[in-house]
Design a protein that fits this description.
Blueprint (H helix, E strand, L loop, with lengths): L5 H9 L4 H10 L4 H6 L3 H7 L6 H14 L3 H9 L3 H9 L1 H5 L1 H14 L3 H10 L1
Helix pairs in contact: 1-2, 2-5, 4-5, 5-9, 7-9
Length: about 130
């Protein structure tokens, strides 16, 4: 994907204002951990976690973090972008508990990011 130039194109699309276009783009990038790291998409994915009026977008962003957090660099990028607090806040939200796919994505993302001791220390210090 990176050789063909489609990753920068996907990155550009995630900035589009039409959320109907954003949903599939976030979903398409889930399996491309390397591309997400090199193109700096984590900041945007974390930013979309706070979009309460679009729970489907939040779910796709949490799934993306879950899928990409196998890598320590991605876990650090999520912490540095401020992604831990929105994930924990989403898990605490009663509305999230009603949406089972969203809850699964959020708890999975928290679980995967907790592999890094620095992320666990960050959460414990802010609780």
């Amino acid at each position: 994907m990176m050789k063909s130039g489609s990753v920068p194109c996907l990155y550009t699309w995630t900035w589009s204002f039409q959320l109907l276009v954003q949903y599939p783009n976030v979903r398409m990038t889930r399996g491309t951990s390397l591309a997400i790291q090199t193109e700096g998409m984590i900041r945007d994915i974390v930013r979309h976690l706070s979009t309460e009026e679009y729970p489907m977008l939040r779910r796709y962003c949490a799934e993306t973090i879950f899928k990409c957090s196998e890598n320590a660099l991605t876990r650090d990028m999520v912490r540095q972008a401020g992604g831990l607090d929105p994930l924990v806040n989403m898990a605490r939200n009663p509305k999230t508990k009603e949406d089972k796919p969203l809850l699964a994505a959020v708890t999975g993302a928290i679980w995967k990011t907790a592999i890094s001791p620095a992320n666990v220390e960050r959460r414990l210090s802010s609780s």
